[in-house]
Design brief:
The structure is a homotrimer.
Chain A lengths: L2 H8 L17 E4 L2 E7 L2 E2 L2 E2 L4 E2 L2 E2 L1 H23 L5 E12 L7 H16 L6 E7 L8 E9 L1
Helix pairs in contact in A: 2-3
Chain lengths: 153, 153, 153
């Protein structure tokens, strides 16, 4: 059992199977040690479980949980790409997309749901640069999306 | 004639000249074998030919065609960057931006217009990771934008 | 004194200290010579100084200044990452996010505020590929955001 997967268990989480793509793309692409992980939505068993916009119907807390689930799905793709999450050298870039009412400004707090998970599971390897934005709508009316770029050992 | 360009002809398409940038940037930047292609809009002969938002005025079908044209423009930039589309090893990341009414949720179907083109033209080399988002507006009121990162052989 | 910092002085600008992250992430991540710079907002002394949306309250000129400040903050992070801005080989990708009213279409003009700064400060090394988008809202109600990927010498 990998250290990272032990951490996931300690957090009371279960690493899912890597989600199926929602279109004509693949879950990840690799160039040498660099892995590009496709955008992840808050999907569980294939179903988006958090829809709607933060600031009009969805609370920050719920959106943070959704971001965490996006992050967990991204980790499942990284496991498929690396064979073992302990082989991740660094999360280089995490981009967090928050479906937002135009009057909601706390997207970074939402994104922390995904960022905190990376740090908790991967330790130093989980420290990442980040871009966070609001958008008016995401695929499937999802509340949050996360994509990332990582380097393998 | 390259295999990829043969495919483009078979699809009844014409690879345009790489579009001029719309600001103080360059069509692509390279780091070793990695090419970063600037955002492409559905421009033909310099003019954006699909404007407006999906879900309020623009149909999915029209937006898919716009995404395909964005993809074709991205291929023209990749040709300029590589000399020959057959030199593309892999499309690593495609990001698709869909100008959307906040009640439209089928962005991935729109993005498939670009993704399917990559697969049809480049085969296995066209398999890519992807992020798709809705946005409230794109430059020039374009309906779709596509940017990408690719690796050359 | 580096040539790039001389240029910054000539432009009447002051390179600030790299801004503190606004969440659970780091200002930059590196993979070999490639630096991923986290999203920068128009912050001065820690405070966002340009808020609101272009097309409803914020002028293009003001937004361009905001984009320039984002770019300056990105340069400060690049200095922290490289030790010396003259060690930058190339800005590979600049992404500019413009908080926009849905009827505003001139995002590229806004983005030029950041792009022109890169060219003025870094010369050929500042030539970059770019993606520019409108979004309905950015963290902290900022008018503009800029993130980038660069290669060091």
């Amino acid at each position: 059992m990998s250290k990272a997967e032990d951490k996931i268990k300690e957090l009371g989480l279960v690493l899912p199977a890597a989600p199926e793509p929602m279109g004509a793309y693949v879950p990840f692409a690799k160039s040498g040690k660099i892995v590009f992980v496709s955008g992840q939505l808050p999907r569980q068993d294939g179903k988006i479980i958090c829809t709607g916009k933060v600031g009009s119907g969805v609370s920050i807390e719920k959106a943070q949980e959704a971001a965490k689930l996006c992050g967990l799905n991204a980790l499942s793709v990284l496991k498929a790409a690396s064979g073992d999450l302990d082989h991740i050298k660094q999360i280089l870039r995490l981009t967090c997309w928050v479906a937002s009412d135009a009057s909601f400004f706390d997207q970074p707090k939402v994104a922390n749901g995904a960022s905190d998970l990376m740090l908790a599971v991967l330790g130093d390897a989980g420290k990442h640069s980040r871009m966070t934005t609001g958008v008016n709508v995401l695929p499937g009316d999802a509340t949050v999306g996360v994509d990332l770029i990582a380097e393998l050992k």
